[in-house]
Write a structure and sequence with these properties.
This is Capsular biosynthesis protein. It is found in: Cell membrane. InterPro entries: Bact_polysacc_biosynth/exp (IPR050445), GNVR (IPR032807), LPS_length_determ_N (IPR003856). With 241 residues, the protein is of the alpha+beta class. The chain has 2 domains: 60 residues, no CATH class; 128 residues, EIF_2_alpha (Alpha-Beta Plaits), CATH 3.30.70. Helices cover 56% and strands 11% of the residues. Strands 2-3-1-4 form a 4-stranded antiparallel beta sheet. Strand 2 and strand 3 form a beta hairpin. Helix 1 crosses helix 7 and helix 2 runs antiparallel to helix 7.
Length: 241
Amino acid sequence: MEETISLQELFATLKKRLGLIVLLTVLAVIIAGVISYQFMTPVYETSTQILVNQEQTEGSQFSRQDIQTDLELINTYSVIIKSPAILDRVAEQLDLDMSIEALNQKITVNNAENSQVVNIAVQDPDPAVAVDIANTTATVFESEIQELMNVDNVSILSSAVLKENPSPVAPNPMLNMAIAAVVGLMLGVGIAFLLEYLDTTIKSGEDIEEFLNLPRLGVISPITDKGPSAEFNKASKRERG
């Protein structure tokens, strides 16, 4: 016979184990908060922008073909910016104690669709180092691209600036705690149903009929402190006393 569980039984199980579910949820949030605030290193981000644009000479005008050429070069420039040819010079100028692979992972290059502006974003635990890496990368690229591709169509549009009170972009304690709350809630609900499934003790007449497949012949009513039986018990105690 296939066993089915009604919605009422599901809610009864959740209500029965509500304390456990709440405990696990709160515990998960606390652990996530402690880890986020105490053990995870804050990471700061800064960015600089470069403009890919042909240098206009006196009496000349930009054509649509020139702009399209610049847009097509941007994908190539994005690769070159993160290449060893540029990052080696950046690490050398800043005397960075890290490998080129580690420096590469700190840098993100992107641009908006059909935009001639390339954004160089840098993340680092030290906001000042992030600013130095971003500005130096843009400066080195502007200088080196003239020799690498024999073009002069790159200029720095805006430099990275160190703010007085920079805010870290990671970790995000509130997001981490929200995720932990969901995980803790799911874990609590799962454990609640697991405990209910593993609990094979008989607690009611319905359990006897279900597990033993035997009919109930009678029910013993609970004895309370009120009623004729209670008065009789009290009288017997007085007589014995």
